[in-house]
Structure formats: C-alpha cells, structure tokens
C-alpha cells in the first residue's frame, strides 16, 4: 500500500503559496478610479466648510472678548 501524503502536501503548499502571494501591481496606463461618490465628497466638503466657519466665528468672538477685557482693564 502506497501513501500519497507527499503529493497532497505539495498541492496544499502550492495552494497556500498562491493564496499568500502579493497581488499584481496596478497598470500604470490606467488611472485609479475614484472610490468616493460625489455626494459623499460634497457632504464632506460642506462639513469642512462649516467647521472652518465655526473656527473663524470662535476666533472672532475670542478677539472681541479680549479687546473688551483690555478696555475694561484700563
């Protein structure tokens, strides 16, 4: 009776090697496709703009309070 364990082991090793190998590099002729939908980008831009506006308003308010505190200290 002959064992076929080495052949099975070789096949399993080959499958493991193929599964763990690195993917092929991207084709330099084709640019990558955008991953985010336009609506997602628009929502993110609106959020960033609102955050910038809030920062500007906070800075303006802080400057006014500092100016008022300086005038009150005189």
TrEMBL record:
Signal peptide from the UniProt entry: 1-24
Sequence ranges of Low complexity compositional bias: 57-74
Biased segments, Pro residues type: 23-34
Annotated region (Disordered), positions in chain: 22-41, 55-74
Keywords: Signal
Superkingdom to which the source organism belongs: Bacteria
Name of the protein in question: Lipoprotein
Organism: Thermomonas brevis
